[in-house]
Design goal:
287 residues, alpha+beta, single chain
Amino acid sequence: MPIVTEQEREFFRRNGYVKLSQIVPKENVDRVIEAIWAFMGKDPEDVDGWYTPPEGMTEYWKHQGSGMVELYQHQSLWDNRQHPKVYEAFADILGEEKLWVSIDRVNMTPPSRPEYSQLDYGFIHWDVDTAHLPSPLPKPYGVQGVLYLADTSDNQGGFQCVPSIYRDFEQWLETQPADRDPRIPDLQGHPIEVIPGKAGDLLIWDRLLPHGNGRNFSDKPRFAQYITMQPAKPGQLESRRPFVESWRGNRTPPWFPGDPRGWEEKRNGKPAELTELGRKLLGLESW
């Protein structure tokens, strides 16, 4: 039975995203949250500690504004990346069975505090350069995903997006000036929609959907794990070498800022255990 219903497919086609309920069990997401606290060296009961950098990451913390945490290879993260329902959800949306998974970060956004403004801002953007797009546009134009690690209310700094731009994206582009910012849309006349969710929910969106994180006006941190999949490219398994090497060495993938302490590399020992599905999703084995 498909994970994504036809009604959910239609919602995705129209709005550029779909939120799927309870895709992974609560014990999975709880383990990731525990790993985040361990990585940061923080006590979840010490509220003031949520705002100070992990030991050895002071310089990095100066630029920490969107809640991103440089944790990538922990077993709990891989347990979610290779979870059968997560894979099936992406396969349903993409219409492909042979997929590769991203190695991406997690998010912990503490509640807003005036004295820590560098940790408190919302944004809307694209992760792709929308100045150079094919015509006609394929939909989806690749996908991205976020797993809700804890219940996230609409004022907690979670996922937000602008479906009204996405619905008529090509027509909207025709109304924009030639010197527009290809990464940040002009939102005039277009409302931002905030998407709350429950622990274990998976939200998948089209890369052409303007999206971002909101500001956290609650009294709890926002926790999330980013997971993306794409169709595997036949005969190009070698292109997955950087992913395989980062997994094997418990290291940050080379395209991310990384942890100057090398916490995962020092602490994890052997790489995360992979299932048969996980080995194919990583690119360690061919489909």
